[in-house]
Structures
1.
Amino acid sequence: MKIIVTGASGFVGQHLINFFGKNNTEIVSLNLRKKDWKEVFPLKADAIIHLAGKAHDSSNTSGDSEYYKVNTYLTKSLFDVFLKSDIRDFLYFSSVKAVADTVDNILTEEEKANPLTPYGKSKLKAEEYLLSKTLQSGKRLFIFRPCMIHGPDNKGNLNLLYQIVSKGLPWPLGAFENKRSYCGIENLTFVINEVLMNKNIDSGIYNLADDEVISTNVLIQLIAESHNKKAHIIKVPVGLINSLCKLGDVFKLPLNSERLKKLTESYVVDNTKIKNAISSPLPLKTREGLLRTLKSFDNNVE
């Protein structure tokens, strides 16, 4: 099997390359930043995995147009090339944020999309374009909406939490009670492989998430457990934390309103559709996957 991957240098891309490299799969990295990227086509391959995109900026310093330029228009251009090619599958990595920035109950694929940020809106625009096109016989389109992805060497909010807890610092956000879905990189690569290997799986939109949900407070306890320590969770009043985050917004501090939301909001994602499609349980439990991720940070503690 031969796969074209955009965004191959990113976190997910590197893990996919490592996974498929062990399974006799040829990977072709396609850099969409190069103006002449279209010149590599017609390129014979079985699938395109489109990971490249502009991630959500917690510091809110990116202009709106940059999100649409990368997440929407580049996706359109790549999909147009796919439609004219002999490549069978197009796997687009969107995001749950293309649907909802906050979730009151459980997010399913049937939820009416109402993104509020330029990031989410740009992802949704790309989805709408892909779905508006007619696929030739034999071609498939998969739109994946992962929630927060984690895994070894992840550099996101999990790493930030790890740095705090591993240094013995108390966790001050214990007053926030929440439930969150996560997506382990091992489960993600497993699903992608199952989809590519099974030609009977139908095109469609699929959420990507682990089976279990956990709270941020439980995550803090897992971080402490990974160091054989006891978690120090403090319940600072919510109102005071919100006020401090507003200062963070003004003075560009590490803890701002956007980051507080990511750390403390509830966001539960349903993964029933993709599990039914692949007819297989996910290989890794949430806690096991998170512990693997956390233990991979050991060499990065200052």
2.
Amino acid sequence: MKILGISGSNREDGNSYSLLNDILQNVSSIETKIIQVAELQIRPCEYCSELCSEKPFECAIEDDFKVLFEEMKSADGIVIACPLYYYIPSKFQAFMERISCLDYYTEEKHSEGLSPLLGKPCALLAISATGGHNTLQVLNHLQDFALMLHMRPVITDFWPFIGVSAKGGEEKDAVLKDAKAIKQAKELLRLLVGEIEKTMTS
């Protein structure tokens, strides 16, 4: 079993990375990997409709978009951690725009149901300076993104139900002081593993 963590922050080793690292380290019998979008070169979508998805889900722009997309395809489950900017950090938003364009033109030029992420379980984490309701815009945006790609966001029985809301700050590893969010994120990871196991045995 392989779980990919994606830190959507523009800042390397920020709170999004710290939260992912904390819940994914020392997870027994599971291969884990974290990719920080901040370390990648991802250009905005150029809406090159004639070239987009000549082959299903193949982008015409040559940069690190493919690195992240390939890792997503090879993972059994995905955890996305993203901070509140306005609303999504620009580099991760660029990635989301690129992959949404690929999804649209793949269906237009080929057919539906070709998404390599179809049915893939995913878990969503959002971090802001104050936590709570301020992260809802991020979680809703991430959920829309996951559903567009036909992934399966994991739902919890605790608020806000579609993921985990965590409190961060400018201080390094500030999010690790949010004990409630850490506990909930670990429970969310446990639920994600359960969903992956169901997928692998079905």
